[in-house]
Amino acid sequence: MKYILYMTAVVLLVIPHGLQAQTDVKIRKSEFRKGRDGFRDAWKHIQNGDKYFETKGVWYGNAYEEYLRATAYNEENAELNYKTGVAALLSDNKDEAAGFLLKAFQIKNDITDDVLLFTGRALQYAGRYQEAIENLNSYLESKGRKKKDEIAQIKKYIDECGSALMVTEDTLRVDLLNLGSGINSGADEYSEVLSRDNSTIYFASRRQLSKSSTLYDDTRYDENIFLSSMVNGKWSPAVTAGKMLTTPLCEAPLYLNPTGEEMYVYTGYQNEGDIRIAVNKKGKWRAPAPVPFKINTGGSETSFTLSSSGMELWYVSNKGKDSYGGKDIYFAKKLNERKWSKPVNAGPVINTPYDEESVRLSERGDTLWFASRGHNSIGGYDIFYSVKNQMGEWTGAVNCGYPINTPWDDLFYHPSWGDDSTFYFVSNRSGGMGGLDIYSGRLLPPEPVVIPVEPPKPDTVVVRDTIVIVKEVIPEPVVPEPPKESFLYLIGRISDSETGDPVLAKIDIIDLATDLVVATTASSDADGTYRVRLPSKKSYMVDLRASGFLSDMKQVNISDNYQGESFNLDASLIKVKVGKKVVLNNILFQTGKSILTTGSYTELDRLVGILNDNPLMKIEICGHTDNTGSLQLNLKLSEDRAKSVVEYLVQKGIDRARLEYKGFGPQQPIADNTTSEGRTINRRVEFKILEF
After folding, report:
1. How far is 427 from 407, CA to CA, in rounded Å?
2. Is residue 637 within 8 Å of residue 442, measured between CB atoms?
3. What pTM does this model have?
4. Of 543, 573, 603, which one is at a domain's C-terminal end?
5. Could you read off the pLDDT of 290-311 as tens digits, one per residue?
6. Whole-angstrom Cα distance, residue 619 to residue 629?
7. What is the CA radius of gyration of the chain?
8. I need a surface site. Which of 18, 30, 414, 437 has the fewest CB within 10 A?
């Protein structure tokens, strides 16, 4: 077999280019020894550290531990500090590297030609971005020949530090949690996919399964697929996903279909890595088989996702056509039951000359999540998103921000199904179990704004015993205050439509002119309130999403002459439960007919979004009329109108098997039919939740 590749080989470079060829620095006994006591043990640690250092790969971590023990004997040796810093930088201890390298440079500033390069990279991982830029620039300006591609890579590091200075100015309010030892290990865990009820997680791991596990040239074991279940709010200890998904070769999960019966899998033993499909029969996964669309090449395909409608697929390849460089994201659309369009490059809005990876579509299909080494990454892979506008075009990539993104590798973003205020992602950041770990995240509500109270002015009258001394007060010159910058906030409360209880909801503010998300916040789970700053006075669409509730969108129109500092928008969300009926507003038909007018499309498209958000939901469309005219005619008219709504939803990609319709005529009034206002209310279209 010619190729046996593992996914992380094409996802991550363990040692970034430009950091592989460090100078061979020797720690000399005569310079290291400073006394008899403890020298023998310390020197043994250096010898062990050197062996690990020369082996490279995951063994840099062992080298760091050995060198660290040696510094307890002598922490003033320049060469030991240099090698300790380099070993830290090239292992999972990156944020510890800067101190050792700075000290090595301080003791002996000519210790190696590349000390400034390593120090700059270490300072980047330590979050000291301005210092990192200065050291990297000093390295570029230093003597010695530097290859063209090395110079380009170092300039990329400098750009990353510049991006970090801007991105980290606005820290996100998120709660991030390592999933712990039940799922993560000292090896790499990544490429997580979740079942639609969020109760089962599949992921790839490169941990050792047995003595016969395959060890590859990056000193890691072959990758296999594991699974864990949510039990009493906690993930159970992970187990292998079955014999066919834990072979001596390499497999990683990419996408799980809504029923949980089909899993798209990366297989490293096909070409340079192909996408195949595994089917679950009677609780057991069968061997991955070829996919029914032409997306695999002679190169590596490492990521895959389908839209909720099943009409669109996205994937990553390093050998696709019209590449912008490295690995790019491609998509294809379903033309009919058997045929798909040819794959198309997602274009420069998404792809860059660097690698893109881990593509994922939102449930509504309007947001694309992916990882990239390009755009305004702050280091390694960063997680980005792009939003589809009303023209069907994907807008510019937006960095998800800090602390989701770090100078480490952050990728494989996966929103929870039905609740995108919680999410999962993968990172090799400091503080993990080792290598790549899987994390969960939760958006937090905004912090309450504390308005400072001015201290009272000192009295101008001082009382001493019974003597009153009146001081002469000389008024200070009045200095006009600079005009204060005015901000406009959208405020309000999100509640349950039935109980009035507070609801924790993710709130996206969308500029209607550009169709871009310009602000995001979350309502408090304690009282349902929220507060978010608006860029300017104009019209916005407010997208509301909460776990267990139907999503909703509200439009706010703020005129230029609006004088208030805040604009209020309260909203109540409808809890999802079987039997619940929801009235569809502004569903309009031609008079006496069942032909929808264009004014109905906005509300119906919102229903399409709800169905895409909840792919297991089945509904019944219910048509109603007032009591004017014949009962038989009204029954037929209401049924025809309900059928027209179903046909519209089917045309928008909703599976007909999820839809039923029925006409009730005037038999279920909700208002008084003796008034024109009541009759208008009774002429309505509802949907009832049948399954969820």
Report:
1. 10
2. no
3. 0.66
4. 573
5. 999 999 999 999 999 999 889 9
6. 29
7. 31
8. 30
